Amino acid sequence: MAPKLFDKQYLQAEFEKLDGLLAAPVNLYLIGGGSMSFQKYKTATKDIDVVVRSDDELKIIKTALKSIGYTVPVISGSYEQMGARAIFENTDEFRWDIFVNVICDGLQLSDGMINRSQELFKLKNISVHMISPEDIFVFKAITTRERDREDMYSLFSKGLDFEIIKKEIIWQNENKLTDFAWLAYFFTGLEEFFNQYSIYHPVFEELQDIAYEDMLIGMVKDKLKSQPMKIKDLSSDFEIEDVKAILKLLVEHGLVFKNKDGEFSLIHI
After folding, report:
1. What are 12-62's pLDDT values in tens digits?
2. For the stretch 248-259, what's the b/e string if a residue is b when 16 or more beta carbons lie within 10 angstroms of its beta carbon?
3. At the N or C end, where does the chain have fewer CB atoms within 10 A?
4. 3-class secondary structure, 37
5. How far apart are CA 219 and CA 223, in angstroms?
6. How far apart are CA 129 and CA 114, in angstroms?
7. What is the pLDDT of residues 232-263, one digit of tens each?
8. Calculated CA dihedral for residues 40, 43, 47, 52, nearest 10 degrees
9. Does the predicted model carry a pTM greater than 0.70?
10. Do residues 219 and 181 make contact, with C-beta atoms less than 8 angstroms apart?
């Protein structure tokens, strides 16, 4: 059965209901289908993904949604993996996925995203902001829900500034919260999208090189966690010249050092 879809008039009505019940002002950043609906990339969405900046804002919203009959649904699969801090659904089956600064346990609501966002409307207690099409594209690339690749195509077909996208994912990768290979994960989604729609874009190869380097850095650091190793041992799964380049980079950044026996060790900070 196809999921129910809700247009922007429905979304705005829900914002207005919520606004009248909030105990304090909140800023909401729309990052998914809801933002696409308001920007006319799609006519309707089955849920709304929003990011807030603080736990206090989350608490205020949760209290208000509960007061108008929203409940916590059972979720699984790709929706569970998104890492929303709160999920609420009403009797119409319309759902809010609410995040606090971080989406999918890795993508951060960066200053760049905030600066590129536009205020959609402002009510008494709610300010609703739409993040840019480029930032929605990044978000869609790291999710695996039904229709995400279709949404990426809608965004792509109307034109995107891939220089913005490249700079944003490099920032995300350099400022990531864990050692998780975030860039490689993003690139996998991008590759699926390009393959599915038989699209070529020159940024693909550039991002592929960056993602490969990031993945290799993660693999080398992971191997060095257990014991010091020589280049030939570190290169068992990769080209030795690639490993040499990565080790040089890690040494220059003070993350790895080479001892007198030619073994490399991870510097634990």
Report:
1. 999 999 999 999 999 999 988 788 888 888 888 888 999 999 999 999 999
2. eebeeeebbeee
3. N
4. helix
5. 6
6. 9
7. 888 888 889 988 988 998 888 888 989 988 99
8. 10
9. yes
10. no
